[in-house]
Amino acid sequence: MDISVAAAAAVHALVERRQTVATAESLTGGLVAATIVEIPGVSAVYRGGLVVYATELKARLAGVPEGLLAERGPVDGDVAAALAEGARERCGADWGLATTGVAGPEPQDGKPVGLVFVAVAGPAGTRVRELKLDGNRAAVRTESVTAVLQLLTDSLRCAPTAA
Question: Can you give the residue ranges of the CinA C-terminal domain (predicted)?
């Protein structure tokens, strides 16, 4: 799916449900937020986000437990979940999105280029998806954005509507 199609689907689903979203990004460096805000009508649903590229900012700004980061490093499924939950909580949104991984060109902390975790935290819990992506840095980042937006849309389809 094209990145802008994924963003439009997610934003329209949120508008339809009258729910909001926030982001916490690492390897995508704000690309999720930038992609979302390209969609007309997004101001009704996008609360804001955090770009937490440095590991210590994942703890300080997004609330990822320091022990988790020390034990597993920033490229981890549970870290992605904590980032999504932190974005949701700290920005006061119904949904939180997160990306963390290795875009390249070199492996990081023993993790290969293309290993990415995306997460969506919502009213009924948190979902994490592990990705093993091919391509250059730009391709890995773009695919990560598309994947987290698709995960949000899937999660919105599965979630019960508010009364």
Answer: 7-155
What is the edge-to-edge ordering of all strands in the sheet holding 46-51? 46-51, 21-25, 95-101, 115-122, 125-132
Cα–Cα nearest to 132, from 98, 104, 94? 104
| Angle CA 93–161–62, to nearest 5 | 20
pLDDT digits (tens, 9 = 90+) for 97-110: 999 999 999 999 99
Query: Rg for the chain (alpha carbons), in Å?
Result: 14
Q: Which amino acid is at 55?
A: T
pLDDT tens string 39-70: 999 999 999 999 999 999 999 999 999 999 99
